[in-house]
Amino acid sequence: MSWQAIGIFDSGVGGLTVLREIFRALPQEDTIYFGDTARVPYGTKSPETVARYAHEITSFLVRRDIKLLVVACNTASAVALNGLKRQFPIPVVGVIEPGARRAVEVSRSGRIGVIGTAATIKSSAYTRAIKRLNPGAEVLTRSCPLFVPLAEEGWTDNEVARLTARNYLLELKEAGVDTLVLGCTHYPLLKPVIAETMGSDVTLVDSAEETARTVAAILAKKDLLRPAAEKGNHHYFVSDIPAGFIRVGNRFLGGRLGDVYQVNLDNDGEEC
Amino acid sequence: MSWQAIGIFDSGVGGLTVLREIFRALPQEDTIYFGDTARVPYGTKSPETVARYAHEITSFLVRRDIKLLVVACNTASAVALNGLKRQFPIPVVGVIEPGARRAVEVSRSGRIGVIGTAATIKSSAYTRAIKRLNPGAEVLTRSCPLFVPLAEEGWTDNEVARLTARNYLLELKEAGVDTLVLGCTHYPLLKPVIAETMGSDVTLVDSAEETARTVAAILAKKDLLRPAAEKGNHHYFVSDIPAGFIRVGNRFLGGRLGDVYQVNLDNDGEEC
């Protein structure tokens, strides 16, 4: 048993969809969330820069004595996960592997589509993870850079969103995928438009639930779970001033967001 | 006369539109450009964070011994210019004041529209600058957060761009502005679609040319110009790896971009 918290980070607010599922699966656990709102987005930046940011944030969380780290950002999971696993002595869980596992489970035809940021798609991390689980799977990918700004603008159900979805997705639909992985934590906000474009025959996979299940399994196996009767406390840190995070975050968590503190992460994770 | 270079910075690649006009106006001058590609965009971030980034970059450029600084980013000009002027002992030129001056010159009716990022519009910097020059002017503003990602995606001439422009601009058009300031260095890439939406009666103002003219006037007045027969050298620094900047930057500068170096700006402008 361990009373330490679960650490979780994202480039911004999107990782709260994963945190919400962790609340559901493990209500007894403390959590510390970090959103890198001063440097968001990661999806358009180089692997080297994203890996450096991920290392700084993990150093910050590890100094707060976490027992497990969740990288709740697809881009950071795609380009930085192996480095973090080597550099830090705690279990590190990304969102790619759980999303890939779920996709392989639900796909009947083995033709699986994956959408994500430019950096996630370029990394081929989903394709490799899916093919490790099912070497016969056929994986078709497409980066959708406008989906994040559309979700942040709140344009999730208008003609621009529908037209953008058609531009990005028609090729995958025509290629006959039966499963589509939403490989970015923002994309669930566009789920209705994506579902409408892909049609009812295509199953949409979002990694949040499966990631929470993986976290619970690892903590159980290592005997690190808190007693089930406990009630966890939740802390939030961001790198830009908290106002925007609080506004959008409360939408993500249904008004249950607690106090949010700003921290300046220059200097390899030392606060200054 | 001074042989020192002109320093110029932007959150990313957009400020190259201003650099291009400086090349045209002052071909004899050396320039040092900094694009903060590891932290782009600024327009969705808080004034405090943008001001901190602007201070770090200016420290870096001042250590390279520049004679004048151009803040070629509307967001940073809107929220950080006065601070930079106080903190550094060189002339500092933003893009807001020149854009406002041009708008007041070309507007016949005094009804002027301004579009920009969320941070620029929220700062009211254009409205204040225009009203200082023409207290009777009526200024109507609108933030257009999707224009930057559209320009970066290269969707500048498709149905999504046209529909987005209509969503953002119809209200300004119907309000009868006769002049529209493109208050973001990315927006000139969407000029055809914006012009089509606003109609031929509305004059579009982009600050780049007027900013270059202001720089030339200040250097002439302070006797800091290099001899007109010289040919300037140009250096480029970015905070993310250079590949993306080089690709897009060459489009902006017509293939004339020189070597680009990466620099890590943590620690208040000290490279590390």
* Spatial strand arrangement across the major sheet of chain A: 4-3-1-2-9-10
Q: How many individual domains of chain A?
A: 2
Going by helix content, strand content and strand pairing, the class of chain A is alpha/beta
Could you name the ranges of chain A where pLDDT drops below 50 across 5 or more consecutive residues? Answer: 268-272
Largest interface: A-B, 31 and 31 residues
The outline of chain A comes out as globular
Q: Roughly how many Å apart are the termini of chain A?
A: 34 Å
CATH topology name of the largest domain in chain A: Rossmann fold
Percentage of β-strand residues of chain A = 15-25%
Element order, helices and strands of chain A? EHEHEHEHEHHEHHEHEHEHE
Helix content of chain A: 40-55%
Explain what you see.
Chain A has 272 residues and is α/β, with parallel strands linked by helices. The first copy, chain A, folds into 2 domains: 5-95 and 210-271, 3-Layer(aba) Sandwich (Rossmann fold); 97-206, 3-Layer(aba) Sandwich (Rossmann fold). Chain A is built from 11 helices and 10 strands. The A-B interface holds A 37-40, 44-46, 48-49, 145-146, 148-150, 152-153, 155, 158-160, 163-164, 167, 239-241, 243-244, 266-268 and B 37-40, 44-46, 48-49, 145-146, 148-150, 152-153, 155, 158-160, 163-164, 167, 239-241, 243-244, 266-268.
Topology (SSEs and partners):
The structure is a homodimer of 272-residue chains.
Chain A: E1 5-10, H1 16-25, E2 31-35, H2 47-63, E3 66-71, H3 74-87, E4 92-93, H4 96-106, E5 111-116, H5 118-123, H6 125-133, E6 138-143, H7 147-153, H8 159-174, E7 179-183, H9 191-198, E8 203-205, H10 208-221, E9 234-238, H11 243-252, E10 260-262
Parallel strand pairs in A: 1-2, 1-3, 2-9, 3-4, 5-6, 5-7, 7-8, 9-10
